[in-house]
């Protein structure tokens, strides 16, 4: 049963500094039955030569998703809850426009299926009031799904940021990145 309230009070928060590179989120994502045993979340090393620091990459679910805007087949949609879904299999033509256009580098073209796939925030779970798989298994709290009040209590020295500046373009997202207290936007050069 799809709830109309589930996205009004909860959000998805990513705290990159807390990622320990354990890959539990990737494994949990791959177990989600809608992904066909492929993980739609990725762990990356920041600078493997100099540090063991890792970051987690999830779809940011942009308010104005460029991946959907550049899709010539209208295969990518954003629903009323702000979730940007993977390409509709009956419409996707495998052109990779979405892969190249995403400012966060999230969509993946699954070559064997000629189809774009990406995180859909475990829509089958969140629409039923459950947390995304990755957020349920993250041992360090790098991924959190809950209310703004809960994250503020857990991270009193951090601020959730969902506005990003890429050159002259502002991108607002449904997913929040935790930044030091007082940050309001993140500029990417």
Q: Overview of this structure, please?
A:
This protein is of the alpha/beta class and 189 residues long. It contains seven helices and nine strands. The strands form three sheets. A five-stranded mixed beta sheet has the order 6-1-8-7-9.
What secondary-structure arrangement, pairings included, does this model have?
Elements: H1 6-9, E1 11-14, H2 24-31, E2 42-45, E3 54-57, H3 66-69, H4 97-101, E4 108-110, E5 115-117, H5 123-126, H6 133-137, E6 143-146, H7 148-154, E7 158-166, E8 169-180, E9 186-188
Parallel strand pairs: 1-8, 7-9
Antiparallel strand pairs: 1-6, 2-3, 4-5, 7-8
Descriptive labels:
single chain; 189 residues; alpha/beta; Alpha-Beta Plaits; five-stranded mixed β-sheet; 7 helices; 9 strands; 24% strand; globular; disordered N terminus
- E-strand count: 9
Structural class: alpha/beta
Assess the beta-strand content as a share of residues: 15-25%
CATH level-two architecture: 2-Layer Sandwich
Please give the domain count: 1
Uncertain spans: 1-7
The number of helical segments is 7
Largest sheet: 5 strands, mixed
Shape: globular
Strand line-up across the major sheet? 6-1-8-7-9
What's the helical proportion of residues? 10-25%
CATH class: Alpha Beta
CATH topology: Alpha-Beta Plaits
Mean model confidence by pLDDT:
86
Amino- and carboxy-terminal Cα gap: 42 Å
Order of helices and strands: HEHEEHHEEHHEHEEE
- As a whole number of angstroms, the C-alpha radius of gyration is 16 Å
